[in-house]
Design brief:
- The protein is mainly alpha-helical and about 70 residues long.
- Helix content is about 65%, strand content about 0%.
- It is built from 3 helices and no strands.
Length: about 70
């Protein structure tokens, strides 16, 4: 195996669209939905918490297919 094949290829994707950054955004979205679920003050936040967590989960699943 030559040295050129063993080196990692640089991704052509923009830095903000790579897996690490977008996984952190998806995790933050899930955490926000979780906090919205367990707060006792606003019923509207409680109502939209499921949608927020679902969007974060779907985003995490999609982003896990992105390149490093």
């Amino acid at each position: 195996m030559s040295m050129t094949q063993s080196a990692k290829r640089k991704s052509l994707w923009p830095r903000w669209a790579r897996r690490g950054v977008m996984e952190n955004v998806a995790t933050a979205l899930i955490a926000i939905g979780f906090l919205m679920l367990f707060q006792p003050f606003a019923l509207s936040l409680y109502t939209h918490s499921f949608i927020t967590m679902l969007a974060g989960t779907v985003m995490f699943i999609v982003v896990s297919k992105f390149p490093e």
